[in-house]
Amino acid sequence: MTPLLVTGLPRSGTSWAGKMLEASGQVVYVNEPLNPQHPPGHSPGVLNATVTHRFQYICPENEGPWLRAFRDTIALRYGFAAELRRNRGPYDLARMAKYGTAFTLGRLRGRRAMLDDPFAVLSARWFAERLGCRVVVLVRDPVAFTGSWMRLGWTVRFRELLDQPLLMRDLLGPYSGELRALDGSADRLAVAATLWRVVHAVLPESPRVRVTPYEELVRDPVGGFRELYAFCGLEWTGRAAARVAASCSRRRADRGGKAFGWSGLSRTAYRPMDPAAALNSYRDRLTPAEIARVRELTSGWDPGRVSGGLPG
Q: Given this model, what pLDDT does residue 266 score?
């Protein structure tokens, strides 16, 4: 059975896309096995390998431990003994019971593993070619992406990328100078925009990889997910269509409440959205000058391939 990977930079809609594919009832949702923080990462029952960097790069030269570990993950073989050796707190035991049960039942019922992991984005080619995954890469407009990171106060140390020699050799070598210049920078806007630009410059082109603009999914969620279901080899049903439609039924007047919701196995950043707000929220997060600066920092990339485009 063909496993699935949903990836893309954090805050690009991967949780939403993953949950909508899970609505097929044909997959087991596996949340962020490559996240370097616990939870959800560092869970050897799910992935019995050691994650050392955000955006861990996996390729044929370093795949030994990763190939063994991910083959167990996509086969839905949960490592109870490995998990108990590392994580034994009350939350960990509850999480182990959920994942262990889901993996076992999913395997018995013939379901496929679906990894939802933004930290896998730079390893998308490896997942497609070595694990045989169908890979969906979510791409958000750079202004909306940067605005979301700014609102949350997020940044990234480019040392996470620079300290991976194989990643720099294979993909990011041409960008090493600007990554070093911004490593540890307090200019969070420049960091986020540069991360967006370099990652999307090196996305793989492969029949097994589908680059999907987030904004296009928001504008036509039912049509967009119907196409993704076909790409992933999932059956499109009335139940799935209803779930997708409901995910975009929230209106601005209904906004509020918790930013996270419990659904399936893991806590995710997905919640029902107001489509108009989703496409226009950047206006409230960035000034006109900041928007222009992001556009300048990310210019030169094909919007038809890497973004659905924002309203004018």
A: 43
Fold adopted by 4-247+258-306: Rossmann fold (3.40.50)
User: Rounded CA gap, 172 and 81, in Å?
Assistant: 38
> For residue 117, what are the CA distances in angstroms to 28, 177, 182?
14, 28, 25
CA 88 to chain centre: 27
Residue-wise pLDDT tens digits, 262-298:
233 444 556 666 766 767 777 778 999 999 999 999 9
**Residue 37 in contact with residue 49, Cβ under 8 Å?**
no
Query: Are the beta carbons of 127 and 43 closer than 8 angstroms?
Result: no
pTM for the full model? 0.90
Classify residue 236 by its DSSP letter: P
Mean pLDDT of the chain: 90
Do 244 and 250 meet the contact criterion of CB atoms below 8 Å apart? Answer: no
Query: For residues 34 and 51, is the Cβ–Cβ distance under 8 A?
Result: yes
pLDDT at 205 over 60: yes
Count, in order, helices (H) and strands (E) of the chain. 17, 7
Going 31 to 33 to 37 to 40, the CA torsion angle's sign is: positive
Please state the domain extents for the chain. 4-247+258-306
Mean pLDDT, residues 294-311 taken together: 65
